Amino acid sequence: MLLYNVTIGIDKEIENEWLHYMKEKHIPAVLRTGMFVSNKMYKVLHDQEDGTVSYSVQYFAKTIDHLNQYLEIFAPVLIEDHKKKFANRHVTFMTLLEEID
């Protein structure tokens, strides 16, 4: 199993709007691609004095082929939509992890 982790730092003033967007639009759209079997979302607990709050959005894929298909075919449109909606109000980085038995 592979974990595609997306960590997003979002301006605190728009946190609720962003959470609604992620839960109602973005995450369902990612899952509808069929490339992931499940997802989880966590709030990162850290000092938030910089005016941002961070979240870890995790998507679980069975194979690297599924992940690569997602990144090549589906991700560009979904990422662009997120960028437009929250321009200059977020920072994002991605990490790929492989489960070790």
Descriptive report:
- By secondary structure, the chain is an alpha+beta fold.
- The chain has one domain: 2-Layer Sandwich (Alpha-Beta Plaits), CATH 3.30.70.
- Helix content is 40%, strand content 36%.
- It is built from 2 helices and 4 strands, in the order E-H-E-E-H-E.
- The chain has helices at 15-32, 64-85, and strands at residues 2-11, 38-44, 52-61, 90-98.
- A 4-stranded antiparallel sheet has the order 2-3-1-4, with helices on one face.
- Strand 2 (38-44) and strand 3 form a beta hairpin.
- The longest helix is centred in the last third of the chain and has 22 residues, at 64-85.
- The chain is globular and about 40 Å long.
- The mean pLDDT is 94.
